[in-house]
Design a protein that fits this description.
By secondary structure, this protein is α+β, with helices and mostly antiparallel strands. It has seven helices and ten strands. It has a domain of 112 residues: Nucleotidyltransferase, domain 5, CATH 3.30.420. It has a five-stranded mixed sheet with strand order 6-5-4-7-8. A three-stranded antiparallel sheet has the order 1-2-3, with no helix packed on it. α2 crosses α4 and α3 crosses α4.
């Protein structure tokens, strides 16, 4: 498939045909079997003879109610899974030649379709750290400054991240950075016996009860100690 910008109507029709060939087996409204459906003259629309409803092959998929051509959806998926440090909605909109608000919508639909992980998916060597998102206090409006007096992470969003060396990533917004919160997230998502690499934060002390816990001392300027580091996780957030 060529780049999203150069996609053609033929590519879109071919994508639609591929979806149609693996087509739904029942009506999206009443569940009646496919042999009681007939295809309307309008491309990719079906009519159910039982409930008399019309629907497209996109109903019940992440493409539902989207006017973005399917070949651009597929190109967006490719760009998202191959970008090592992620891809912004603005960059995605330029790559596949659609509006930025549409690319934002696509990214959310695709991420949501990737599923909420119900199993512990991280194993092997896993990096864990907390990032803080928000502007500097000195650059904020005067009223906002008064509400968030303090230094460092005060007034910012706290996001705990974990990244396996197989590129699997788990991110979660946290209210606190204490041991029960951070270690609880790690225990929920990392297989016991795995190696967990963190910085020297006291919130991670005690992980060695369930994992092989290795640390680097960021406050002392140590960021790498052999294969112990959190660099891949930090690159993901850039």
């Amino acid at each position: 498939m060529s780049a999203g910008k150069k996609g053609t109507n033929t590519q879109t029709r071919n994508c639609d045909k591929g979806v149609e060939q693996s087509a739904r087996q029942s009506c999206s409204e009443c569940g009646i079997e496919k042999d009681k459906l007939w295809q309307k003259s309008r491309k990719n629309y079906y009519h159910c003879n039982d409930c008399k409803k019309d629907f497209t092959i996109r109903v019940g998929t992440i493409f539902h109610r989207s006017h973005v051509p399917l070949h651009k959806w597929l190109w967006a998926m490719y760009l998202m899974v191959t970008a090592r440090a992620g891809i912004s909605s603005m960059e995605l909109s330029k790559q596949i030649d659609i509006k930025q608000e549409w690319s934002w919508f696509l990214e959310h639909r695709i991420r949501n379709a990737s599923g909420n992980m119900t199993e512990k998916t991280l194993s092997g060597i896993v990096e864990a750290d907390v990032a803080h998102f928000g502007g500097k206090e000195k650059n904020k409006h005067k009223k906002s400054k008064r509400q968030n007096k303090g230094r460092g992470a005060v007034g910012k969003m706290h996001v705990h991240g974990m990244r396996g060396r197989d590129e699997q990533v788990v991110l979660q917004v946290v209210e606190k950075e204490d041991a029960p919160t951070l270690q609880g997230i790690i225990k929920e998502n990392v297989l016991p016996g795995s190696t967990v690499c963190t910085d020297e934060a006291t919130s991670y002390q005690g992980l060695d009860a369930n994992f092989e816990h290795k640390t680097v001392n960021h406050s002392a300027g140590q960021y790498v100690d052999g294969d112990t580091h959190t660099i891949r996780l930090r690159l993901f957030g850039q």
